[in-house]
Amino acid sequence: MSLCYPLDVDPVAAEDAVVYAAPMSHGAGLYNFIHAIADRGNPGWPAIAASVGRAQACVEVRVVDGAGRETAAGEAGEIVVRGPVVMQGYWDNPQATAAALVDGWLHTGDIGFLDGQGYLSLTDRSKDVIISGGSNIYPRETQLRQWLLDPDGSLGSA
C-alpha cells in the first residue's frame, strides 16, 4: 500500500513471483476512494502500480488547469474530486470550506494527471509550485533532475 506519493516500481524478476503472486491493491491517503489492481500480465502494469488508481463509482475525479478547465490525458494540473464520500466542508470554518470547495468540487492542492485509461498519478503539491516566466516549476521535479544528473552529489548542490 502506498500511503502518499506513488510507489517506486522496480523491474520484476522471475524469483519475485513468490512475493507478488497475488494481485496487490493500493491507495493514497485522501485518495482511498480510488482503487488500483496492477495486473502484471498487462504490459503497462508498472505505470498502473505507480499510480494511485482509478476512481470508484461513487466519486468523480478531474484534473484541472489554473482556470478550472479540465486538462488532457497525461497533462498535469490540480486534482479535484466530488461525490458523497468526499468531505462536505470544514467544521465551523466557512471560509476554508469556500476556498476548498468550488462548485461542489474539492480542490485537493495536489498536482497530478489522469492517463488515457483513467489512472490518477500524483506528481507534486500545488503550494510547492514556483511560477517563473509563465511556466510552472515544481521543486520535486527539479530535485529529481538534479539527482538524475548527479546521483552521488559530486557536482555540488543545485
From TrEMBL:
InterPro entries hit by this protein: AMP-dep_synth/lig_dom, ANL_N_sf, ATP-dep_AMP-bd_enzyme
Residue ranges of every copy of the AMP-dependent synthetase/ligase domain listed in the record: 49-91
Coiled coil residues, start to end: none
Gene3D superfamilies (UniProt xref): N-terminal domain of ligase-like
Matching Pfam families: AMP-binding
Protein's name in the database: AMP-dependent synthetase/ligase domain-containing protein
Organism whose genome encodes this protein: Diploscapter pachys
